[in-house]
Design goal:
- The complex is a heterodimer.
- By secondary structure, chain A is an alpha/beta fold.
- Chain A folds into two domains: about 55-160 and about 320-380, D-Maltodextrin-Binding Protein, domain 2 (3-Layer(aba) Sandwich), CATH 3.40.190.10; about 165-320 and about 385-430, Periplasmic binding protein-like II (D-Maltodextrin-Binding Protein, domain 2, 3-Layer(aba) Sandwich), CATH 3.40.190.
- Chain A has 17 helices and 13 strands.
- In chain A, strands 1, 2, 3, 6, 11, 12 and 13 form a seven-stranded mixed sheet that branches.
- Chain B is an all-alpha fold.
- Chain B is about 65% helix and about 0% strand.
- Chain B has 13 helices and no strands.
- Chain B has helices at about 20-40, 55-65, 70-100, 105-115, 120-130, 140-145, 160-185, 190-200, 205-215, 215-230, 235-240, 255-260, 265-295.
- Chain B is globular, with a radius of gyration of 24 Å.
- Classes of the chains: A alpha/beta, B mainly alpha.
- The interface between A and B is large, with 60 and 59 residues.
- Chain B: Belongs to the binding-protein-dependent transport system permease family.
């Protein structure tokens, strides 16, 4: 019998070997090299029509109902179109949005955090360019650069928040505060005045890294030798052991006695309650906590202020803002025309106003009328000389965490010098 | 050649039966592991097409202590592991011994102790985040109410104590679950052995030492191994209590790897993951040997 016609016999070892070889071959072929799939990039289409149902990926579950109303308005004007919200918790969105959005199955329109996520998404080619879209001119020129990279408009920041302490206006008046401080001595005097009125001057959630670090923005905005100090720390040009940073840490130590007890272990939720019960004069987080405090039932007037850490004439900024929730069109999407139409809809001042007043947040779109009382009170800050929140300059999360943790450590009792050295050690390791 | 067919040989088709399990194993374990090895030798950021091969640099840096954040997370994790394994095993064994009888009261109390196990880690974290709050939390409030302010703690805000408080939460959440496993193991021990021991004049401690402890060995091994792996993966509890990313005093290996992935360092995070697997394997093997030695000597 010719060998080609012999029956094939397989022994046990051969069979198992065959299965193993098949598995390994499959594993090897599945392991296409890292980075073997890349995003597209390119310009988003102009002048198309909205005929698809798109996915809108974002992280703000608290805005879902407001967006539902806005989507209803969009569908009224585009009968064949639809928008489905794809909402992830903010932490998940921060860590895994790029991977989820790259395929284009979700997030035909999407959002990005300012800072590392925006930069990474641009590098991944996730954003379709918006430079040629007419509706971008409806956005304030002050904020649109946040969505640019190398002169190209990739995204449009939608929200403006002020990342500086909020305060109880009524309580300040009762404590006899007639004028807000314009320098560091004045800020300490204000804290003393509040303490004399038997209230905790500053409620600071040192136990929650994200909220705790908002104070870092206003504590550094005038102390740092340049506005891009975060970038320079990551580049090794500035160090945590530099005088300006040691001064900042020393000022944190000066504030510690005016914070609630064990401030470095406090979570934000109990402090919101403390602030709501009018037992704390300031909540050192950001304007986003005004709406949260209102939701707890607060009826007193609230405003924002920032500690000026220098003398009045040395101060470069009055406060800190951040422009975020950067809207974009997914370059991998095959429904880009509808996604562009959705962004155009959001850019309408009336729609942007509906979003702003419904979510109690300012927006970057020009010509919006704020009807929410808290937004109206804070509206003048939109034109004040505020710094773009510096903490989002950090692109390395470990560097950012190390620098900001030094402030928490100092409030917890560590010396500024030691905290600075420990932070710099980590920074050095991370930047190589 | 050994033939698959023939008298006394299983039918060749039988070898197809494990195929579904093999396929699942390959897809969900072999492939990711092979990929992790491949990624670990690169500096890939997770999304761009470009990457450099770095050989064993990532692993060498981690293994030689060149990354103090990883070393800190490892130290925290081993501390957490030690506290949880010892306390949780002792507590669950103690509870099991006390609630071994199938009386109505025992069954009720068992279910009360088991209750935390059915809560999600996130819920547990939120409950304890409130309990540990230094200002409004019930522990500091109670201490303050009886004039013991000096004993009040910063809990999670105290870098020297934080990981121990998280370990306490972990023990609270899982001791009841492991108690049930111990009860199942203890109920397998024949009563005759205790009767014989009592006839030989053995007291309660001697009965425990010479009958219970050696015979509950297989259950203890399961409990210790499970607790060990659980301690290495207390990811959601840490994030719930300490925020994301957690501060250095609360960072453990799983949260460190997650932060590294989030930081767009996929290659380096893959290297951390491989080391993580190796550490769990080594600790589990060491524990099993230590337990075997202890129980052989009993």
């Amino acid at each position: 019998m010719p060998s080609s016609h012999r029956p094939i016999t397989v022994d046990r070892r051969g069979f198992l070997g065959l299965v193993g070889a098949a598995g390994l071959s499959y594993a090897a072929t599945s392991c296409a090299g890292p980075g073997s799939t890349s995003g597209g990039g390119g310009a988003a289409p102009t002048g198309g029509s909205a005929t698809d149902t798109i996915s809108f990926a974002h992280w703000r579950a608290e805005d879902q109902q407001v967006f539902d109303k806005i989507i209803a308005g969009f569908v009224d004007g585009n009968a064949d179109a639809g928008v489905k919200q794809d909402i992830s918790p903010s932490q998940d969105y921060q860590s895994s949005a790029i991977q989820r959005l790259r395929g284009g199955e979700v997030g035909d329109a999407f959002t990005a955090f300012r800072g590392a996520q925006f930069e990474d998404m641009v590098s991944a080619g996730l954003f379709a360019e918006l430079t040629d879209q007419d509706f971008t001119s409806g956005y304030s020129e002050r904020f649109t650069p946040v969505g640019q990279k190398d002169g190209t408009q990739y995204g449009l920041p939608y929200q403006v928040v002020f990342l500086q302490p909020i305060y109880n206006v009524d309580l300040f008046e009762k404590a006899g505060v007639s004028e807000l401080p314009k320098d560091w001595d004045g800020f300490l005097a204000l804290c003393e005045q509040l303490r004399s009125a038997d209230v905790t001057p500053i409620a600071w959630p040192g136990g929650d890294a994200g909220n705790a670090a908002q104070l870092f923005n206003s504590m550094t905005m005038n102390n740092a030798p340049s506005d891009d100090f975060g970038t320079k720390i990551e580049a090794g040009e500035y160090k945590c052991t530099d005088d300006w940073f040691l001064k900042t840490l020393g000022q944190y130590a000066e504030l510690a006695p005016y914070m609630q007890k064990n401030a470095s272990g406090s979570a934000p939720e109990p402090l919101q309650q403390l602030f709501n019960e009018q037992k704390a004069g300031m909540l050192a987080t950001g304007s986003y906590h005004i709406a949260a405090t209102r939701a707890l039932g607060a009826e007193f007037a609230m405003d924002i202020l920032a500690p000026i850490t220098t003398t009045a004439d040395e101060a470069r900024y009055e406060g800190v803002h951040n422009a975020t929730f950067i809207l974009g069109v997914n370059s991998s999407s095959d429904k880009q025309e509808t996604a562009v139409a959705w962004l155009e809809h959001l850019s309408d001042p009336e729609v942007a106003g509906e979003y702003a007043n419904g979510t109690a947040q300012h927006v970057t779109v020009d010509g919006v009328e704020y009807t929410n009382a808290d937004l109206k009170r804070i509206e003048p800050w939109l034109s004040k000389n505020t710094a773009l929140a510096p903490r989002y300059q950090f692109l390395d999360l470990d560097v950012e965490a190390a620098v900001e943790a030094a402030c928490v450590a100092v409030v917890g009792g560590q010396s500024p010098e030691q905290a600075a050295e420990e932070a710099q050690k980590i920074v050095d390791e991370q930047i190589g | 050649m050994t033939k698959l067919t023939g008298p006394g040989r299983p039918h060749p088709a039988l070898y197809l039966f494990p195929l579904p399990a093999v396929v699942l194993y390959v897809v969900f374990f072999v492939i990711p592991t092979v990929q992790a090895v491949q990624y670990a030798t690169t500096d890939w950021d997770g999304f761009t097409p470009d990457y450099e091969s770095v050989g064993a640099d990532n692993l060498v840096k981690l293994a030689t202590g060149g990354d103090s954040l990883f070393t800190n997370a490892l130290t925290n994790n081993l501390t957490f592991l030690l506290v949880v394994v010892v306390l949780q095993t002792l507590l669950s064994l103690g509870l099991a011994l006390m609630l071994l009888r199938n009386s109505k009261v025992s069954v009720f109390v068992r279910s009360v102790y088991f209750l935390p196990a059915i809560l999600s880690s996130v819920s547990v974290a939120f409950i304890w985040r409130f309990i540990y709050d230094p200002n409004v939390g019930p522990i500091n409030q109670a201490l303050g109410a009886v004039g013991l302010e000096s004993l009040q703690s910063g809990f999670l805000g105290d870098p020297d104590q934080a990981i121990y408080w998280v370990a306490m939460t972990q023990v609270w959440a899982h001791a009841g679950q492991l108690m049930v496993i111990f009860i199942a193991g203890l109920q397998q021990i024949p009563e005759d052995l205790y009767e014989a021991a009592r006839l030989d004049g053995a007291g309660r401690w001697q009965q425990f030492r010479h009958v219970t402890w050696p015979l509950v060995a297989p259950t203890t091994a399961i409990v210790v191994a499970y607790t060990t792996i659980q301690s290495f993966k207390a990811f959601d509890l840490i994030l719930g209590l300490g925020g994301n990313p957690p501060r250095g005093s609360l960072d453990i290996l799983s949260t460190r790897i997650y932060t590294t992935f989030t930081n767009s360092e996929f290659g380096y995070a893959a290297a951390q993951s491989l080391l993580f697997m190796a550490i769990i394997l080594a600790v589990t093997v060491l524990q099993r040997r230590a337990l075997a030695l202890t129980q052989r000597g009993a």
